[in-house]
Amino acid sequence: MDRNRDQGGIVFVDLRDRYGKTQVVFDPEGGTENLAAASKLRGEDVIRVTGTVASRPEGTKNNELGTGEVELRVKKVELLNKCNNAPFTPGQQDLPGEDLRLKYRYLDLRRTDMQRTLILRNDIILEMRNYFAENGFIDVETPILGRSTPEGARDYLVPSRVHNGQFYALPQSPQLYKQILMVAGYDRYVQVARCFRDEDLRADRQPEFTQLDLEMSFVTHEDVINMIDGLMLRLAKKFLNLNLKLPESF
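RE: above sequence
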């Protein structure tokens, strides 16, 4: 529940999920018991409502809301979980510091900006995978536990339970594995790969990160550049509505 507005005899509740907000209406026609329950609801309470979807009365439609033309007129309400003294609410303007937001990460992830970011990331990765599939790449998931290989930073080590005194190393990149794939004849590999580097923190860098990883066999320098340029043109068009041109754009 995002918030409620008690108008004296009618209670309006904004119900929120990752798809947006919907106005639900508690009025005397839905029963005095439901009306009394609605007046006790508070922000972040989790509820289940049953009722009739109807057009909002003339002059009350909200064009800024995806569901602004309709409302749910409640006939039954069930409190699934009561929220007690939330340290902050996802809709408040003056957000607390990052430490508090990370401590209560589940509340922070309810914010509209966070939802948009995660959904955008999902859409970009889906578009990338479609692009590479159309260009003959296969998506291969490579191992996380492997042996240490020379890289640019220190490895994270994981002790082996069955081989005393020996360790696995978490990958800084899938370099060894994708070279094996090339030798094996797969010629075009791609992966959204999780990588790990045991190094000091820097701006926008943390010990674990995700990268778009790919490899191609029997190609030239220009083939690789053209493949990535084509991806960037496609992403810019779909997500920024930009019609970039080659080679001027990069």
